[in-house]
Amino acid sequence: MNIEKRLDYIENAIQKDIKFRNSLKGMIIGQFTVEEYMAYIQNSSTLNKRMMNIVVERLKDQVQAFEITVLV
């Protein structure tokens, strides 16, 4: 796949694959302290959206960085 298709694939996989998205959320939430988890419970919907946006951007950045290092 070219770089654009890879980036689209990442975004679609996280948006459409509910099991994958829940696994990612679980990995993130598992790192929370008790205080962070209590705050998460109060705002879970908003925080879920923000977490997934951050994960998508981080994965895209990593794919792009890897692409640059491979080309050099």
Main attributes?
elongated, mainly alpha, 72 residues
Measure the end-to-end span.
19 Å
Q: Runs with pLDDT <50, length 5+?
A: none
Helix content, binned percent: over 70%
How many helices? 4
Order of helices and strands: HHHH
Q: Sheet bearing the most strands, described? A: none
Number of DSSP-assigned strands? 0
Overview of this structure, please?
The protein is an all-alpha fold and 72 residues long. It has one domain. Helices cover 88% and strands 0% of the residues. The protein is built from four helices and no strands. It has helices at 3-16, 18-29, 34-42, 44-71. Helix 1 (3-16) runs antiparallel to helix 4 and helix 2 (18-29) crosses helix 4 (44-71). It is elongated and about 45 Å long. The relative contact order is 0.14.
How is this fold's topology laid out?
Layout (H helix, E strand, L loop, with lengths): L2 H14 L1 H12 L4 H9 L1 H28 L1
